[in-house]
Design a protein that fits this description.
single chain, 318 residues, alpha/beta, TIM Barrel, 2 domains, six-stranded parallel beta sheet, 11 helices, 43% helix, globular, binds zinc ion
C-alpha cells in the first residue's frame, strides 16, 4: 500500500506533470490576453474596446465638400411628405375652381396655427433633394396659385403678407393683361417681397391632350415646344429672376411634354394628382391637390393626414 501511495505521490509531483500544468497555464493566459486585445472581447463583455474611438476609421468624407448650410440627403426623413395645394381664382366668382377669400384666409389662419411651414415649390424640391438651406420643417406645405387671376395680386398677396406665408404663382404669359388686372409690375412686386415664386404655366394655356388628339404628335411637339421654351424666356426677361418650375396646363402631361420641359432647362414641373410630394418622386410630375369651390377645410385636412381622394385625378382643372 505504502509503495503504491508513494508511487502515486511521486507521479503527482513528477517534474513532467509540473511542467505540463505550467504549460497549460501559459496557454490559458495567452488566450485570455489575446482575447482582450481582439474584437471578440468587446462582444463577450458587451462593451466597446477601450481604444474604440482611436482605432475607429474616420467617417467617410463625401467627394464634394458640404457646408453646414447644405445638409446631406440622408438627413431628410424618408417618410417626409410635403402636401402641395393648387388654387386658381380666390374670389366670389361662380367658377367651380374659385375659392372664396374668406375660406382662403381661414385656411391660412388654421394651417399657420397648426404649425405648418409654407415653402415655395422650389424650396420643397430642395428639401426632397437634400439641398435645402436651413432646418427641414416638421410640417412643410406648399401653396400654388395657377393662371394669374387678378385676385393673385389683389387678394392672395395681401393675405400672404398678413400671415407671412409663401406661395408659388404659375402664370401664362399671354394672360398677363396689365393694370388693373394683373401686370408685370405686380408680379415683380410679389417676387421682391420674398413671399412669392413665379413659375411658368405656358404661353397661351392651351390644353396639351386635346392638341395632341387633334393635330398628332409631331404638330403637338412643335406647338408645345414654343409654349414651354418661350414662356420661360419671356418670364425671365420681364421679371428679371430665373424661372425654374413649370405647371402643365390642366395638369396634362405625357412623356413628350415632360422631355420638352427638361430640355427647356426647368428643374421641376407640377401636375395634378391627389397625393403628397415625397422623396423619390419624379421631379417633373410633382403632385398637387386641386382645391375647388366645394373643398372644405375638413377635406383639406384629410389630404394632409394622408386620406386622399383619388377620384380627383379624373378632373382637369383650368
Ligand atoms: Zn391653368
Amino acid at each position: 500500500m505504502a509503495r503504491r501511495w508513494k508511487r502515486k505521490e511521486v507521479r503527482f509531483y513528477s517534474p513532467r506533470r509540473h511542467w505540463g500544468w505550467i504549460g497549460l497555464g501559459i496557454v490559458l493566459l495567452t488566450a485570455v490576453w489575446g482575447a482582450q486585445h481582439s474584437i471578440f472581447w468587446g462582444i463577450w463583455t458587451h462593451a466597446q474596446p477601450p481604444d474604440a474611438s482611436v482605432s475607429k476609421p474616420p467617417p467617410a468624407v463625401p467627394s464634394s465638400s458640404r457646408s453646414f448650410e447644405e445638409p446631406a440627403a440622408s438627413m431628410v426623413p424618408e417618410d417626409l411628405v410635403i402636401p402641395i395645394l393648387c388654387f386658381h381664382d380666390v374670389s366670389h366668382s361662380s367658377s367651380r375652381w374659385a375659392v372664396a377669400p374668406e375660406a382662403f384666409e381661414n385656411l391660412l389662419k388654421t394651417l399657420t396655427k397648426e404649425g405648418y411651414d409654407f415653402l415655395t415649390v422650389s424650396e420643397a424640391v430642395a428639401v426632397v433633394k437634400g439641398e435645402f438651406s436651413g432646418n427641414i420643417p416638421d410640417r412643410p406645405i406648399a401653396l400654388t396659385i395657377d393662371d394669374g387671376f387678378p385676385s393673385a395680386y389683389h387678394t392672395v398677396f395681401p393675405l400672404l403678407q398678413k400671415y407671412q406665408v409663401k406661395a408659388t404663382l404659375f402664370v401664362y404669359t399671354e394672360g398677363i393683361k396689365g393694370h388693373p388686372l394683373l401686370s408685370w409690375d405686380d408680379l415683380k412686386e410679389m417676387v421682391k417681397s420674398g413671399l412669392v415664386e413665379i413659375g411658368s404655366h405656358s404661353v397661351s394655356h392651351t390644353y396639351p391632350f386635346p392638341l395632341l388628339k387633334r393635330f398628332g404628335r409631331k404638330a403637338f411637339k412643335v406647338k408645345m415646344e414654343r409654349e414651354v421654351f418661350e414662356s420661360r424666356k419671356i418670364l425671365e426677361e420681364r421679371i428679371g429672376e430665373p424661372v425654374s418650375g413649370f405647371a402643365y396646363p390642366g395638369g396634362q402631361v405625357d412623356k413628350t411634354l415632360e422631355n420638352l420641359v427638361k430640355e427647356a432647362g426647368y428643374s421641376w414641373a407640377v401636375t395634378i394628382n391627389p397625393v403628397p410630394f415625397r422623396l423619390g418622386m419624379n421631379l417633373y410630375r410633382i403632385p398637387r391637390f386641386a382645391v375647388a369651390k366645394g373643398t372644405t377645410l375638413k377635406g383639406i385636412n384629410r389630404w394632409l393626414t394622408g386620406e386622399s381622394e383619388p377620384q380627383q385625378t379624373a378632373v382637369s382643372p383650368p
